[in-house]
Structure formats: C-alpha cells, structure tokens
Amino acid sequence: VFASLLSNNFEALHFLDLLYLSSSTDQVEGRLGPSTVVLDHTSGFEGLLFVDDDLLGVIGHSNFSSIRATTCAYKGKWVYEVLISSEGLMQIGWCTLNCRFNQEEGVGDTPDSYAYDGNRVRKWNVTTTNYGKSWAAGDIVSCMIDLDEGTITFCLNGQSLGTAFSNIKMGPGVAYFPAISLSFKESVAFNFGSRPLRYPFHFYIICYLPLQDPPTADLIKAHRLLGYMKTVLSTCIDTQEEKLTEKDIGSWQLKGEPTVLVTLAHIFNYFAPLMCKVYLVEDVLMSFLLGILEGGGSVDEHPLIQQLLDLFWLLMEDFEVNECLKQLMMSLLRAYRFSPIIPDLGFQIHYLRLTTAILRHEKSRKYLLSNVITFDVLRSVVFFYIKTPLRVKEAGLEELIPTTWWPTRFDKEGKDEKDLRHETADERMRRRAYERGCQRLKKRIEVVEELQVQILRLMLNNKDKGTGEASRYIFLNKFRKFLQENASNRGNPTVLCPPEYMVCFMHRLITAVRSYWDEGKRKSTGAISSEDDLATKANIIIDPAEIQATSMDDLDEDEESGAAQRPSGAAAMGGALARPSWLSSPTLGRANRFLSTAAVSLMTPRRPLAPPEKVKVRSLPVEQRTEEDIEGSHGNDGLLLGRPLEEPDQPITEKSLLEILDGIVMMYNLSVHQQLGKMVVVSDDVHEYAVALKDTEEKIARCPGRRPDILEELQKSQKVFAEKLNHLSRRLAWINATIYSKEKMLDVYWLLRVCIRTIEHADNTGSLFAFNPEFYLNVAMNSYSALKNYFSPSNSMDELPGYEDTLTQLAAILAKHFADPRIVGTDIKDSLMQALASYVCYPQSLRAVERIPEEQRVAMMRNLLAPYEQRPWAQTNWILVRLWRGCGFGYRYTRLPHLLKTKPEDANLPSLQKPCPSILLQRHMAELLSQDKDMAASFLNSVLNQLNWAFSEFIGMIQEIQQAAERPERNFVDTRQLKVCATCFDLSVSLLRVLEMTVTLVPEIFLDWNRPSAELLLRRLAQLLNQVLNRVTAERNLFDRVVNLRLPGNARTYDMSPLCSVTRVVRLTVKRINGPAIARAASVLLSDPCFQLHSIQHLLGETEASTAGADHKHFSLHAYTDYISAEEEQKVEQMLAFLTEESKQAAATTPTSEDDLCPICYAHSISAIFKPCSHKSCKACINQHLMNNKDCFFCKATITGVEDYSKPAGS
User: What does pTM read for this prediction?
Assistant: First the structure.
C-alpha cells in the first residue's frame, strides 16, 4: 500500500519539477530588473544608510537619506509592503529613475515621485496635503501602484487609506521603483515578495501582484509533501489484519513502525531542501505548526511539535535543519512584531505559544540560542515586548473599556485632588466602570506576559546538560554581549535595543530570575523562601585583600611592581583606582563578573590569607565561557573564598543568576529609566486636557446668552477636548497595564533594594567599595525617583512592603556618600548631591533622613556646612534652603504668588513641592555652628562671598537686558541671557534664605562680639543687606523696570522673594530687646554708608507720593496676607519705628568736624586705631581691608592689631 502511494505521488512531484523549470524562465510582463528584488545599495541611494545583509532592511544615518529598489514597474498592478520599525519621519512610495534626491528633498519632493508620510499624516508630490492615518512602530504599510489606471494607493495594516494619487505620469520611458526617504535613526524592512505578503488577499481581489514572484511550483510541491506527511502521521499499520487505520495525528510518536519512518525518510528527501527557503518556511511550515496549536489548551498538551522537531533532526541534514529553524524563528519574530493588536491579543498569543513549543525542544533551543537568538534589534528581545497601540479604536480598546474617566477636580496649584469624598455619584460610577475595563485589559495582557516569562524560563534552564552546555550558560554569554553592545555603541543604531523593548525585557527577566531563585531556595533543606530573599541574600563573597594582591596580568602590567603599586586602603569609586578592562561591566574576564554582581557581602575566609602574591587571572571572550567559568567548580573559584557567618552550611545560589541580575541592573541604567520617564507624557496629556476641558465648561456656564457665536466655539472646543480625553484615557489604561502596573512597580522596588544591599555591603567591606560599579548608585537613585514620580497616582509607594525602612536605608547612603572622599568622579558626585537635594523636598523621604542614626545626621550637616569655596555649592545651599522652607518670613508658598495662574512645566519637580521643614536637622545645624566657631565663621564668610558675587552678577545682567530693551531698533533678548539672569536671582534669594536661617537659629554668631569674627560678619552682613534693599526698593529703578517687562524665562524674578528674606534678617538683627548686643547691631546697620531708611519704609508701601506716578503699583508686605501673618506685619512695623528713632539719634550725634570722619570713606566717625603705626579709620573700613590685606592704608606697615578709638574729651 505504501509502495503504491509513494510511486504515484513521486511521479507527480517530477511533473511539478518540470513545471517549475518551464515557469521560472518566463518573465511577467510589466517589470524590469532582477527577479529577486532588493534595495539598490550600489547606485540607487542618497545620503548615509545602514542596509541589512539581506538588502531588505534599512536604517537612516543622515539628515534625510533615500534609497530605491533594484526592480521597477511600467505596466500592470503591483504591491510591496514596508514593515515600520520606528514611527519617525519617513516618506514611502514610488519614484522614477529621473528623480534626484538630496539631504533636504526625498521621495515625494520631486515631480515624478509619490510618497505617504504617516508621521505627519500627509501625502507628498512636490506639494503636500493631509492623507491617511498616523503610523506606529509595528505597523505594515502596503504601497500599491496601478499603471493601467494611473493611480497610487496606500494601506495601513490591511485597511485602505484611499487613492492617494491619480493621473500619475505614464508612457514610454516611465517606470516606477519602490523608494523611501527616512531621517536619522529611522528604520524599516521591505517585503517585495521574498516572503508571503502579510495582507495579500485584499489586494489579489483586484489583481495586485507582489513585485517579486512567489515560488509557485515549490509552494505546490511543499504543500503536497506536507499533505503526504500528515497522511503518514495519521496512519497506523494494523499488522494483525494487514490494513491501514486512521489515528489522531496529535498522538503520533517517533518511536513507531520502521515502515512509517522509511516512508517519512522518502518524503523528507524532497521536503527538506524546500524548508531552507524563507518563503516556504513561513507559508507552509509555520502555518502547519500554528494549526497544531489552534485547538487551545496549554503547550504541553500538544506533544506533536516536539515529535516533529525530533523527526527534523533525524531525517534532515544538520545544515538543512539549522537553516529551517533559523528561518522559522525569524518568521515568528516578524509575525509577532508586526501583528495588529486586537482586543484579545490573539495574534500575539498564537505566535508566542508556537515559540514556546519550539523552545521546549532541547536540541532546537540550544541551536537557536547559539546561532539565532542574539538579542539585537530584530531578534529575541522582540518576543518580550508588548507594543502600545497608537489608534485605540483599531486595537479594540473601545470594546474593552467602553466607559472612560479622567480627573475632574484640581487644587489651586493645578494638581489632581486625590480626595474622593467630594466625588459625585455619576463620577464614582464612571470611575469604577473605567477601573473594571482597565482590569479586563490587564488580564488579557497578563496572558501574553506569562507566555513571555515561559520563553525566558526555557532559555534560563540549567538542567539540560545531556546534549552539551546548558541553555542558561549559552543565554548568559549572549546576554553579556548584548549588554556590551548597548553600553559601548550608544551612537550606533544597528546594535542598540530600543528602550521600549528594554523595559519589557527587563521586567520579564526579573520575573524569570526570581522564579528560579525561589525554586532553588525551596529545594534547599531548611531554607526559607521569601519575596525579598534574592535582594538580601544574593551575595558573592570576595576577599578584598586578594583583590589587592591580584596582578593585572591581562593588562601587561609590570610583573614585579604590579601588586606593590596598588593601594592597600579604600579606593575612590570611579576615580582614584581605575577599574581595569577585565573589571568593567559587562564583564570580559573570568573573575570580574563577581566584582559587579548583584550584592557583595562580608566573608569568612576558608584559608588564612598569605602575604600578597601574584595571581594569574585568565581572561576569556564572553562567547567562550563555560559553565565552570561562570559557576566555578567544587565550591571554590578564584576570588570566591567563603560565605557569610550567618549561613555557614547553606550553598550560595548559582552565580549565573547573580550575573544575570547584574545585567538587569545595567539594563535599567542604560535605557529603562529614561523610557519610564518618557511614557509619563500620556498621563501628563490627560491632566492637561482635563484642566482645559474643565476650564472650557466653566466658560460655557459663564457665557452670556447674547453671544451665541462664542458659545458655539466653546462647545466645539469642549467636544474636541472630550474626544481627545476618551482616546488618551484608553491609551493610558494600556500603558498603566504594561508599564506602570503594581507588578512592574514591585519589580523596580525590588531592584532598588538589590542596589541598596550591594552598596551597603561594598561600603562595609572597605576597599571593595572601589570596585562597586557606579551604575549601582545611579540605579538606586533613579529607581527611587521612578517609584515616586512615574508610578503614581495609579500606584502609591506607601503600599510597598518595607517601604519606610527602604527609604531610611537609601537616605543613609545619600547622607554618607554625597561627600564621600572615596568618590572622586564628578558625574556620580553630582548625581548623589542632586538626589539628596530632591530627597529632602518630600515629607516622607525627609522623615527618612531624620530616622537615620544621629551620628550620620550630624556628619551630613557638617558636610553641608563646609565652606562653599572650591566645591559645587549651589546644590548644597539648595538643600539647606529646603530644610528651612516653611519656617522663613513669608516662605510658606509652594510657588511664587504671581506664578500661580501659570501652568508649571512639571508639577513633580522638587522645587514645586509643598514646604516641609526639618526642625531636627535645623537643631543639628544650630548646634554645629554654635559649638564650632571656626567652622561657623568660614561657612558664613563663604555664604556672604557667594551672595556678593551672585547679586552683583544679577545686577550686571539686568543692566544689559535693560539696555537691549531700550534700544529703538527691534531687539530680542537672548534666551540664554535671561536664564542666566534668573539663575543668578534664584541663587541670591537662596543664599539670603540661608542667612535668614542662620540668624534665626544662631543669632550669637553675629551678636556675641566675644566671638572673634562676630563684628566683621555683622558688618559684612549689614553691607550686603543694604545693597540688596537699595537695589530692589528704589522707585523706578533698574530692578523695577526689568521686572515689569515680564520677559519670558525671567518670570521668577520678583521683588517679594529677596525682600521677605532681607526683612527677616534685619528684624532679627535689630529686634527691640534690652542688651548691648542689639544696640551694637543697630549701630552697625545704621552706620553703614549704604543704609537708607526709605528702603525699610518701602517694605510696608510707605513711599513718597512725589517719587512715583499715580499709576504705579507700590510693593507692600500688607498685600501678601496669604503668606505673611498679621503678627509678622506688626513686628516689621515695630522694627521700622525702632530704626526710625535710632536713625534720628544717630543723625543728632553726627560729627561736625571733618577731622573726626574716617579719612577713607568720610561716612563714619573714626572708631579704630591701628597697631603699631597708630593710623586711624572707622571699623567698617579697616575690617573690610583686613579681609584681603594686612598692610596699613597709609604707611604700608604690617598691622598687628586694631583697637577701639574714642576721641579724647575736650579735644
């Protein structure tokens, strides 16, 4: 029976061969060029481009690059597909050979070229008009040309966008090439017919043909052979009755009758060569395998695929099965990546199930891991990505989420109100319906994510050692190379993983690694598994002494001096002790992976450490590392010497998991954090449109009935805003489910704890801190920022387990290391300082700083109070200001009063948070400044120096701005100049606030003249305060005119800011209490040459009517009742009365003789005599002079002392 079956059918196959040979010689009319259509990379391009090896994929690498295909059409109806890999600026279509492109003009910009641009949603043919829909990465554009009717049409994901162009040029000598122009880093892949078109049937109805002919004869042959194979697999030989019986094909097993295997071998003799062709693999084999899984159920319920793969490896040559598997996996990747999104995500699930089934086959999995799945842009990372739909209607989100919702209540600062008590019944019903829709969507997405995790778990299998190296170690070597490429080739788009892919890949990898960790812990006797176990116990044990003793033979160091030259103590992260190449992460050598793994613990050496000796470290390329290189052997591997005391008998987990964990941390640092920040823009857009909609509804309610025209326009705006919010709210639901869900938040939180543990252990170990990769600190800071800013309001940090303890641990790291002398890298130092500055802006994190041990708090404040010279001081000063904000005079605002009606660029900025002062840290500051007189003097001198510089720079800048504004010709003030001006103003105000804080907490620094520097500090303070007051309060002065210009970028320049802080300092300095110190302070202030009483009067709006026009609005503290209390106003009035009285008395005692005045300033009476030369001046002049020079004004003798001088009686 089998013999007759074979003889008849193989005769038919010979006939098909003859048919193929005859048909392959016929050229279909209407085309010119090679039968295999590819991109013309030799002469048909303009600009710089990267073209793939198959000549079908292209990436732009210049401003606007263009390229065309090798084959053109002059008659008939033709189509090709473009797979959109990035959604940026591109123009796709057709052009003639006469078209000449350049870096500015591409396809569609010349007369005989026609293009569709889905980025700007336009069509181009010299001129441009609106056309089509916007495209997104993962879409497929079909480009059709009808040279019989003279029309060009485009389709997006199989849906026609309508005829784009008609009456195109045709005739003799006119032929059209497929062509594209694309901007920098944009990428696409073409399908001219080398693979089955994704949307063919829609086009074949009207006879559109792919530009490249499909292998028709081979297709018929392959389908027929596949039919024979199915017949054999579903046939069973009944030896007793000597007949054939049918059986379920799904139950077939390789171990069966020899006759069946012999028959299959004959079939594979013809079938195997066909399976090396991509078109046949995708159209025949992949469709057949997908059909096996169509019945549903788990992948385990379909063992036939495993049996078929066994059959492939048995009956096909190695090179044939290798090529077949490669093309099959690449076809699955393309199919998954460019599948349209439907409500149940059926396409994605279908392709992932088949991928899982294939990877369950051990031999196939190892081959694919070794040769195909190599984590570049178009490889397996694609399987772990879930693309976000740009068009929610086509994705079916309207069915999943029929009811939309968005915030409708906002506080006066424009932020969403989280209090739901004021919610109406209708709003509550809408919100709950929206949340139910979001949950439905999340469950669909979780099915896809679970399949993706299954794929990763198969790749991380380390028990399949029977057929060679385990899958995990193959995966790990590829993974490290993937990280190297992304870390070292940030400017090369051909090897970079898109950040949106990296986010999804990282989350799936974390889930897979933690599941393997938990499995290993459950198998360990007596081990306790917990959610946080890996974060706290994933330790690689390194002996720092041996690290120092190891000679860097890989680097060709001097063998005699290599170890001796290495420092024996703690080294500086990123600076003093440079990390050699074999210690760089991702790692290249055998030992370095242990130095950058997930966490580093204290260790107990198994052997006494000998004196430093040279140890040869073997360096291996990443691809050549074996299991022994990664895991070690017999529990000992070079630098691994012991285990923690608390676990003397418990084996350390597989080090391969720790190396993967190290890679996860690096992934977050490379691009995940930036991508998390980018996706927040959708939430921001929802908020912005919701505010605009509410504002429009309020205007409609106030619109008078006599203005129907205004009402009509408002209602149109209302409709537009509502439609946009419906779209955005559904898109936000998708993003929250895929990126900002509770599970993703827990992943990032877990990563934060891993980094914290790593840093703590490295710090405790001493010199090992130098080898801790800098990106661990960056990830610790950035992951906390992401949890705080990106995952809210849908998820709150307060709900995370151990949240407060984690905040405290991170606070301790920031407080200790922001001024750590071991860290000398400027970038990481700046990052730590900025992170601490942000940390103290939020109540919860500030309380965490207050919970760290007192010794660390005091040390932190001591570092903050170090002199400002020769170090970045702006962030330090900002930290002190934040600790004070909420306690200062008129310093209880979140935003300046005049800016409340404007929308902030980012409401989550630390500077826009509500005041949350720290009384505890203020007390530490007061104690330090009070007890350490030298530190107090140096700190305040540096603050006064910086204030003098910042305010002088500010005044200089506004002079230039005023001059530019007054010129008769039209001039525009440079934006950068405005920003510098605003920055100098902000610095001046913040320095004034620090002075206010110091005078409030430790007034004796200025008023206790028993302290050696008190008088000098007080005089300097009075001089600067008077300068600021005079500049800001003078009527119609420079400051007043520039502020009233209201220039964009200079809006923060506002007179309330400096005047409030100056008012508090002056009031505290001269407050009316008994005591000689206050009298001296008032005398110093009044004796300053710059003191003007009307500047103090200006604070309360008491200015002379003659000096100001009637239309000029006067400044007055009385106008800020929301920020300044009545009690504070009363104290200012008392201060003004006191200074008025004191100034009258001072005027009455002014010397009448010129001989009694200081010969330098002629403003004050002589009050000091120099030793030993006995020359005289006022104290203000000599104290200012002695700050920079010790020589006498007059005789140049060295001044050894200054004594008080009073004019003798009767002289």
Answer: 0.82
Please say whether the beta carbons of 535 and 750 come within 8 A: yes
CB 1007 within 8 A of CB 1073: no
C-alpha separations of 614 from 552, 592, 895 in Å:
9, 16, 61
Query: How many Å is the Cα radius of gyration of the chain?
Result: 39
Preceding peptide of 968 cis, ω within 30°: no
Are the C-beta atoms of 185 and 202 separated by less than 8 Å? Answer: no
Task: Give me the mean pLDDT over the 781-793 stretch.
Answer: 88
Contacts of 756 (CB under 8 A, 6+ apart): 780, 806, 809, 810, 813
Cα–Cα distances (Å) from 1071 to 890, 922, 998, in that order, read 18, 22, 16
* 920, 921, 927, 932: CA torsion to nearest 10: 170
Residue 445: count of CB within 10 angstroms of its CB? 16
Model pLDDT for residues 1128-1169, shown as the tens digit of each residue? 777 777 777 777 777 777 666 655 577 778 888 777 778 888
Q: Give the CA dihedral 572, 577, 579, 583, nearest 10 degrees.
A: -90
Other CB atoms within 10 Å distance of the CB of residue 236: 17
Both tokens assigned to 192: 């001219």
Q: Please name the amino acid found at residue 513.
A: V
661 C-beta neighbours (distance < 10 Å), count:
25
pLDDT digits (tens, 9 = 90+) for 733-781: 999 999 999 999 999 999 999 999 888 888 887 777 777 888 898 999 9
Residues pairing with 187 in the sheet: 59
Report the alpha-carbon distance of residue 1035 to residue 1012 in Å, rounded.
Answer: 39
Dihedral angle, C-alpha 227, 229, 231, 234, nearest 10 °? -130
In angstroms, the CA 627 to CA 469 distance is 7
443 touches 435 (CB < 8 A) = no
Closest CA to 505 of 668, 669, 341, 655: 668
